[in-house]
Design brief:
Elements lengths: L1 E5 L9 H13 L7 E6 L15 E5 L13 H18 L13 H4 L4 E4 L11 E3 L5 H4 L6 H17 L2 E4 L2 H11 L6 E3 L14 H10 L7 E4 L8 H13 L6 E4 L6 H11 L5 E3 L5 H10 L2 E4 L8 H9 L3 E4 L4 H5 L4 E3 L4 H13 L1 H14 L5 H18 L11
Parallel strand pairs: 1-2, 1-4, 2-3, 4-5, 5-6, 6-7, 8-9, 8-11, 9-10, 11-12, 12-13
């Protein structure tokens, strides 16, 4: 069997999905069977994936990467404004046909039996497919998306779910969400929990830890929050909580990693209004080795997101032996179990009190670390890779004997 896995993504632009692909590649590379796994990447854009691909896995270039537009300086303001104008003009012209991409023929030429789309943006093909709609955030938090974007998401996700032979999600919560809102048949949806991508990273040496600490000028004690600066990641609520603690005479430090996208100027503005520049730092995108080191150096992990399809940082923190405080929303109770301190992310006071307890209660932190140690044993990439392999084989068996002609570019 030959499986194609869509890894056409720019380094640092898709957050947790990139971590999932790296972890999956690492685990599939260790499988000893006759199956072959082809990771489709942009031409010249596979450096982030190469360290994790070996054995039955190989990288296959699949077209040029899209042109990158700078996301700093004046472009922080130009890009979102231009997008709003474009979307408004599209809607003003009347009914909008959402363009759905088609295969450029790579997987068909390679003789792929099954294609796995781990991203929410896929393409149409005659090859049997497995699709990941990670979450339906636009359904639950419509105010975070312009009307045009909601329409595009809804159209694409529904179409790819319909085209796929199997739909994969990471939690029972998301499966129920798809059944409720997209009316998918429950038997079409497979729940495959994700492990910590950091499990595949090289453990940092003391020298690397010292280097990362010096490079980012990290304080001796800090909370870590790894997340792109999307609005739903709730950095604003986190800043409000840190300010509350400061006003209560408790100064905590928070280090945030993740690409600074178009919402970052709003976060930066709140940071300055609250006067937290010396307590909260935003590092931007970090490498895999730096990410692993940041987990190791942190006192604990805070995860105040408003919506998650799974919540990989929680599992990664468990694996790093760090106490976790996270939101009590969507799929997070499923992934955290009893190993994290949960709070309402819509209430900055609850975020603040959770941070206070982790900052000051050492015994409680030790208990959380022990629970996290047991919890993370449930989620390994070996288990996840075997579950996916079984899905690949099941879909391939159903289509045995069917040929696949190359689709038009």
């Amino acid at each position: 069997m030959k499986v194609g896995i869509d890894a056409t993504m720019l380094d640092g632009h898709v957050g947790g999905v990139q971590q999932v692909v790296m972890g999956l590649a690492s685990a599939l590379s260790r499988l000893s069977d006759a199956d072959e796994y082809l990771f489709l990447t942009y031409e010249g854009g596979d450096e982030w994936l190469r360290p994790y691909v070996s054995g039955p896995c190989r990288i296959v270039p699949s077209g040029p990467a899209p042109r990158q537009i700078p996301n700093h300086g004046v472009m922080r303001f130009v890009r979102p404004a231009a997008r709003r104008v474009r979307d408004a003009l599209a809607l003003a012209r009347g009914p909008v046909a959402v363009p759905i991409a088609r295969s450029n023929g790579t997987i068909e030429r390679e003789g792929v039996d099954v294609v796995h789309f781990p991203k929410q943006v896929a393409f149409l093909t005659s090859v049997p497919s497995i699709y990941h709609p990670w979450d339906l955030q636009h359904v639950h938090l419509p105010h975070l998306f312009p009307r045009y974007q909601r329409m595009v998401r809804d159209t694409m996700y529904r179409r790819f779910c319909e085209e796929a032979d199997r739909v994969c999600v990471a939690s029972e919560w998301t499966k129920h969400d798809l059944v409720t809102h997209f009316h998918l048949a429950p038997e079409k949806i497979a729940v495959v929990p994700m492990a910590a991508a950091t499990e595949a990273y090289v453990a940092p040496t003391p020298a690397v830890l010292r280097e990362v600490k010096a490079h980012f000028q990290l304080p001796e004690k800090f909370f870590f929050y790894p997340a792109q600066t999307f609005r739903h990641k709730n950095h604003l609520g986190l800043l409000d909580a840190v300010a509350m603690l400061r006003d209560d005479d408790l100064r905590v430090h928070v280090v945030c990693s993740g690409t600074k996208n178009e919402f970052y100027p709003e976060i930066e503005k709140r940071l300055h209004v609250l006067g937290l520049q010396d307590q909260v730092s935003f590092l931007g995108f970090v490498t895999s080795s730096q990410l692993r080191a940041l987990y190791e150096l942190a006192h604990g992990v805070i995860f105040p997101t408003l919506f998650e399809g799974w919540g990989l940082p929680v599992i990664e923190a468990f694996g790093a032996g760090r106490p976790v405080a996270c939101s009590r929303v969507t799929s997070l109770p499923d992934s955290a179990g009893d190993a994290a301190l949960l709070f309402d992310p819509h209430d900055p006071r609850q975020i603040a009190e959770a941070m206070r307890r982790l900052w000051k209660d050492e015994q409680f932190c030790r208990e959380l670390v022990q629970r996290g140690h047991e919890r993370v044993k449930l989620f390994t990439w070996e288990k996840t890779a075997v579950m996916f392999r079984d899905l690949y084989r099941d879909v391939a068996r159903r289509h045995a004997g069917m040929g696949h002609e190359a689709a038009p570019a």
